[in-house]
Write a structure and sequence with these properties.
- It contains 6 helices and 9 strands; from the N terminus they run E-E-H-E-H-H-E-H-E-H-E-E-E-E-H.
- A hairpin with a 4-residue loop joins strand 8 and strand 9.
- The protein has one domain: Glutaredoxin, CATH 3.40.30.10.
- The strands form 2 sheets. A 7-stranded mixed β-sheet has the order 2-1-5-4-3-8-9. Strands 6-7 form a two-stranded antiparallel ribbon.
- With 151 residues, it is an alpha+beta fold.
- The model has no long low-confidence stretch (mean pLDDT 93).
Amino acid sequence: MPIKTGDNCPTFELNDQEGRLRASKEFFNKKALVLYFYPKDDSPGCTAQACSFRDAYEDLLELGAEVVGVSGDSLEQHKKFAKKHNLPFTLLADINNKLRKRFGVPTNLFGLIPGRVTYVIDSEGTVRGVFNSQIDVKRHVKKALEIIEKL
């Protein structure tokens, strides 16, 4: 069953691009967490999406939000991707797609491409908004900002 607005965020522990184990609870010390799932590091759409979050990162921080990207890529791939595109936020390696499955993130193109979904989660761990679009990659940031501004 997919996670939807009003649901509690599933707890998680995954390694980030630096190899540190990161727990969901540490991200809830801010007003909001923007948790976005994306298909693949360095693909055109995923790069555009990550760079749009990078470009809006200061605005998101000013609103009291933190950004975390999640894909099934390895720690090393995440590290290269973050360095290449100067990404200032955390990328989590969901290597077996367990977290993706817990959130119920759909696949696209007959199940071949992992979905692209953004969740805005408040400081209490409640999902306050969900945006799902494989194609409109830059709109994920716009929707996240709209939701956070209302918190």
